[in-house]
Amino acid sequence: MMTKTSTKQKVMDAASYLFFTKGYNGTSVRDIASKANVNVSLISYHFKSKQGLLEYLMVHYFEKYMEIFELIDNDCSEKRTSKREKLVQIIEAIIQYKQRNYQFTCFINRELTLDNTLIREMMVTYIAKERHYIYEALYQCMHVVGVSNLQIQYLYVQLQGMLMTPFIMPYEMREHVLFQHSHDFFIKKYADNVVGWLDYILEQAKHDHCKRGVM
Question: Rounded to two decimals, what is the model's pTM?
Fold first, then answer.
């Protein structure tokens, strides 16, 4: 007998796939029920409506996402991790989470370009928190080597761009990410590239900081 949890998860997985491939407006409740191989009434029972299902998926996605920052924050505080290492952990964790939830991440990035009540709520509740965590980690890392506040703002835009790009260009990624092994390979290689950018910026900042100290 199918359990309540497995039924709900099957519906969530089916909706994530269909919202990604067909879009929210192009997906019906019947499409989701057919993909999940469940009765339409079960979707109404668990989520009330397609809109209710979308809201549940978004909250579930972002709640799990926010846990990443809280765990890293607590862990780094306990271990007195360096500012650079904390930022590296955040970068790697973000890329891993987004890639593990690739289809829904791409769908959310499309939705965030729209202006509606749900998106505004997500922006205030979750996106603002994400920005705070990433910017604060970047600021702490760069400020100690003398990077100006204005420059840090530009670096933040660059960093966010790198963290988002693979998930706003899904068609460009099709040839690179096909199987579980390629997902794992991409996570490692892409994270390495972003960390390489970070280390280059830090080295340049340290060099400039030393030059200013000598002058």
Answer: 0.87
